[in-house]
Amino acid sequence: MSEGTPSPYEWAGGDEAFQRLTAVFYGHVRKDPVLAPVFAHMDDEHPAHVATFLAEVFGGPARYSAEHGGHDHMARMHLGRHITEEQRRRWVSLLMDSADEAGLPADPEFRAVFSYYIEWGTRMAIVYSGDDPPPTAGPMPTWDWGQTPPWRPGG
Ligand code: HEM
Question: What is the value of pTM for the model shown?
Answer without folding.
Answer: 0.96
